[in-house]
Structure formats: C-alpha cells, structure tokens
C-alpha cells in the first residue's frame, strides 16, 4: 500500500514549490515572423514579471524554471548559443535583486557543458545568495531527470540505501518535492522533468505559449490547485 512520503508536509502548513516548463517560445516567434531566439528573449522578459509575482505572493516558497534540458543540445547550435547568451544576460541583470529581495538561487543540472562564463556566474550567484531565506529561485539548466538520478547513483558508495538516503544524493535534496507543475503550449508530457521530485505533483497543461503566460495565469493555477484534493497515495 502506498502512503504519503514522510518528508512531505500538508500543503496548507507550508509554502508551495511550483515549477514551470515554459514551452512554445519558438512556436510563438514563428507566428510573429520572428527568429527562434526572439521567442526566447520575449519569454525571459515575460518570466521576470512571473518571478516577481511568485516572490511577493506569499504562498510560493520555491519556483523552479526549466530553462534547458539535456535533450536540448540537439537543437541548432546557433539557437543554443543564443539561449546561453540570453540566460547569462538575465542572471547578470537579476543578480543584485536576488540579494536585495532575500532570494536564494540554486541550480540543478550539469555545469560542465554550458559556456564557462555562464557556469561561473551560476556558481557565484548560488554562493553569494546561499544565506538568503525569503524565497528560492531554482534554475534547471542542462537538466534531465534521468541524468540527475544517474549522477546521484555515481555518488553513492554503498549499494544499499533507503529512499530518504538516496534523496540526499540528488542535486538539491533540501528543496521540497514539487507541488505544482505548469506546462505551456499544449504539451502534455512529463518529458524527463524532475522524475524523483514530481512523484506526487499536480500537473496543469495550458494551451497558450509561454511568451503569453502571465502572473494572472499563475494566480489562476494556484486557485485551481487549492480546489484539488491531494491524496499522496492514500
């Protein structure tokens, strides 16, 4: 018989962990006659307002955004290079605000394959914001759920570990499991996204492309989540 994980508290007693899979940036750009990375640029500007809304809402303690998957390396190299430039520009712009707003930034995924300047920036921001405890911004960059689990297994010295012990070898075991995952652009797949941490997540699939997603959509998603009865396997 399945039961609720011992580390998972009732939603009402803690802040939520919300994740976004921001699909549809290239499709949005195509409908506007723009280049693919123009869609990503619009998406990152749009995300700023969503990030700020989540930080000030009070119900959300952790926001995860999936910026780049381990499978995204299959894309056109020029688009990948533009994406990395966009992410680095975004983080440099937001860096001071992370400290100002008591926001901790953490990263899940690999750092060895992305541009060195971006990897260094991520590492530096994570280090300087690690004492901030007001809100957590979790960036998943060059991230894949299977890849995270494989990397965790490689860290384990003993083959006999419990579920909770295994969790300690994931990228960020201190983060709560994801309560809500929002995927835009009509995609209805889990796509290798935080396989361990999404075991009891609620999913919401939206038809609109992410560049059209707004804080109002986030508010509606939280209202919908509050209507659902989460059983955690019970």
Describe the structure in brief.
The protein is of the alpha/beta class.
Please give the number of β-strands: 6
Q: Compute the number of helices.
A: 7
Terminal Cα separation, in Å? 8 Å
Average predicted local confidence, pLDDT: 89
CATH topology: Undecaprenyl pyrophosphate synthetase
Strand content: 15-25%
The number of distinct structural domains comes to 1
What are the segments in which pLDDT stays under 50 over at least 5 consecutive residues? 1-12
Radius of gyration, Cα only, in angstroms? 18 Å
Q: Helix content range of the residues, please?
A: 40-55%
Q: Looking at the structure, what is the overall shape?
A: globular
CATH architecture field: 3-Layer(aba) Sandwich
- By CATH's scheme, which homologous superfamily applies? Decaprenyl diphosphate synthase-like
Which structural class fits the helix and strand makeup?
A: alpha/beta
Largest sheet: 6 strands, parallel
Structure in words:
It is globular, with a radius of gyration of 18 Å. Helix 1 crosses helix 2 and helix 2 runs parallel beside helix 3 (77-100). With 234 residues, the protein is of the alpha/beta class. The protein has helices at 25-31, 36-57, 77-100, 116-128, 145-155, 163-167, 215-227, and strands at residues 16-21, 60-69, 103-108, 135-143, 180-183, 202-205. Helix content is 41%, strand content 17%. It has a single domain (13-227), classed as 3-Layer(aba) Sandwich (Undecaprenyl pyrophosphate synthetase), CATH 3.40.1180.10. The model is unreliable at 1-12 (pLDDT under 50). The chain has a six-stranded parallel β-sheet, with helices on both faces.
């Amino acid at each position: 018989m399945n039961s609720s994980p011992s580390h998972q508290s009732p939603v009402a007693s803690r802040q939520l962990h919300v994740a976004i899979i921001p699909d549809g940036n290239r499709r949005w750009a195509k409908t506007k006659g723009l280049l693919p990375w123009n869609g990503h640029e619009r998406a990152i500007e749009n995300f700023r307002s969503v990030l700020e809304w989540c930080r000030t809402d009070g119900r959300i303690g952790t926001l995860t955004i999936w910026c780049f998957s381990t499978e995204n390396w299959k894309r056109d190299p020029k688009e990948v290079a533009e994406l990395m430039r966009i992410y680095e520009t975004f983080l440099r712009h937001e860096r001071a605000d992370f400290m100002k707003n008591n926001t901790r930034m953490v990263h899940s995924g690999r750092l060895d394959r992305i541009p060195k300047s971006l990897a260094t920036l991520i590492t530096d921001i994570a280090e300087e914001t690690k004492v901030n405890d007001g809100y957590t911004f979790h960036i998943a960059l060059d991230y894949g759920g299977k890849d995270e689990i494989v990397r965790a297994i490689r860290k384990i010295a003993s083959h006999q570990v419990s579920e909770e012990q295994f969790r300690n070898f994931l990228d960020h075991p201190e983060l709560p499991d994801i309560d809500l995952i929002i995927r835009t652009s009509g995609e209805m797949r889990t796509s290798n996204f935080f396989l361990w941490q999404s075991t009891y997540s609620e999913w919401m699939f939206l038809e609109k492309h992410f560049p059209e997603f707004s804080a109002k959509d986030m508010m509606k998603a939280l209202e919908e989540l509050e209507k659902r009865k989460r059983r955690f396997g019970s």
